[in-house]
């Protein structure tokens, strides 16, 4: 059957509501089983500009599928987008998914010039995984306990399709395996405390180092005002300071989104002043965050990304129980080329 492809519009609220609440869609995506029509209409009336959504309609105009892209807003990941796809239960196996997938990939390649399209699929959604493989998506890893479904934390298969031009993708294979950590100076005293908005200048100075930018997704020339706002908004952020009161490390945990089915997940980030590498600052920050999550917060899964050639950071995370789950190819822009990142995670609590 020929399907008409067009952009999702506010007039589609009722049809999109029916699609999003289909039992098979709820089971195999991150949708909720009960959604109000009013909430769907509000979404479409105020549709986020970083989401591009297309719909598939039958010749008589019935909406039977929706697919699209969540563009990344961090500047060093603007080359990547998260793909999503939903097909109504009674239209499964009729070519709707393939039609939408081709349209979205054409849009991504020829109009947005995206380099990396990524997705997560519930591990037992074999039909969808096979469809993605036919269109060039490759398996990159498995995120353990990622999706809360019917009371069980299910694994997600992580896949991506790359479209780099020659020389753009640094393809830095896992350099950490054979790396030797450098010798460091004797340890100096430091202390930890919760961050405050007044730490903005110190944190901005910490983020200004080239090694910090290279090993994170921060931009050069950090904005003190932006850091003041970020520290004001952060609930779980720590700083390390030396005996003179200078900030030598920063760490935080945050939720990746507001989807209830991902409420058990928190992300983690740590930055240490290059002169303090090997002094135990990163370990202390990480231990403090792990204790806070384990003792006082409801998160079950703690995850992070790290450039795959950052041997010291990978060794630290593995020391504290983080496992390598996926190699995300060309995930982060660094010094003009796209580099691989590792997704690492650990289970904080199982019950």
TrEMBL record:
- Keyword Ligase recorded: no
| CDD domains reported in the protein's UniProt record | NAT_SF (cd04301)
- Mind telling me which Pfam families this protein's record contains? Acetyltransf_1
EC primary class? transferase
Annotated InterPro entries: Acyl_CoA_acyltransferase, GNAT_dom, N-acetyltransferase
For this UniProt entry, the molecular function terms from Gene Ontology, in alphabetical order, are: acyltransferase activity
Q: What keywords were assigned to this record?
A: Acyltransferase, Transferase
Any idea where the N-acetyltransferase domain is?
3-164, 190-349
**Entry-linked PROSITE patterns:** GNAT
* EC number from the UniProt entry: 2.3.1.-
Q: Which PANTHER family match?
A: [RIBOSOMAL PROTEIN US5]-ALANINE N-ACETYLTRANSFERASE, GNAT FAMILY, PUTATIVE (AFU_ORTHOLOGUE AFUA_3G00765)-RELATED-RELATED
Tell me the protein family, please.
Belongs to the acetyltransferase family. RimJ subfamily.
The protein here is known as: GNAT family N-acetyltransferase
Species name for this entry?
Vogesella amnigena
């Amino acid at each position: 059957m020929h399907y008409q492809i067009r952009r999702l519009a506010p007039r589609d609220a009722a049809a999109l509501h029916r699609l999003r609440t289909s039992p098979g869609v709820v089971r195999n995506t991150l949708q909720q089983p009960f959604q109000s029509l009013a909430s769907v209409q509000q979404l479409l009336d105020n549709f986020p500009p970083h989401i591009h959504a297309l719909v598939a309609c039958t010749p008589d105009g019935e909406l039977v599928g929706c697919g699209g892209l969540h563009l990344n807003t961090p500047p060093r990941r603007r080359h990547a987008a998260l793909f999503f796809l939903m097909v109504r239960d009674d239209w499964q196996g009729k070519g709707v998914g393939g039609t939408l997938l081709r349209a979205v990939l054409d849009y991504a390649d020829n109009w947005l010039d995206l380099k990396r399209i990524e997705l997560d699929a519930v591990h037992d959604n074999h039909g969808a995984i096979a469809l993605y493989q036919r269109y060039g998506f490759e398996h990159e890893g498995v995120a353990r306990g990622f999706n809360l479904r019917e009371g069980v934390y299910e694994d997600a298969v992580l896949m991506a399709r790359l479209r780099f031009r020659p020389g753009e993708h640094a393809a830095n294979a896992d350099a950490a395996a054979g790396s030797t950590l450098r010798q460091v100076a004797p340890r100096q005293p430091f202390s930890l405390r919760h961050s405050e908005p007044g730490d903005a200048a110190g944190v901005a100075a910490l983020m200004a180092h080239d090694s910090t930018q290279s090993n994170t997704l921060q931009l050069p020339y950090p904005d003190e005002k932006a850091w003041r706002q970020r520290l004001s908004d952060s609930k779980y952020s720590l700083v390390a300071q030396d005996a003179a009161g200078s900030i030598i490390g920063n760490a935080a945990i945050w939720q990746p989104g507001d989807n209830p089915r991902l409420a058990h997940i928190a992300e983690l980030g740590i930055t240490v002043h290059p002169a303090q590498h090997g002094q135990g600052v990163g370990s202390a920050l990480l231990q403090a965050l792990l204790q806070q999550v384990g003792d006082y917060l409801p998160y079950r899964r703690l995850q992070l990304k790290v450039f795959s050639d950052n041997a010291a950071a990978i060794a630290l995370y593995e020391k504290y129980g983080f496992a390598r789950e996926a190699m995300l190819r060309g995930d982060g822009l660094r010094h003009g080329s796209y580099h691989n990142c590792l997704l690492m995670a650990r289970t904080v609590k199982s019950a």
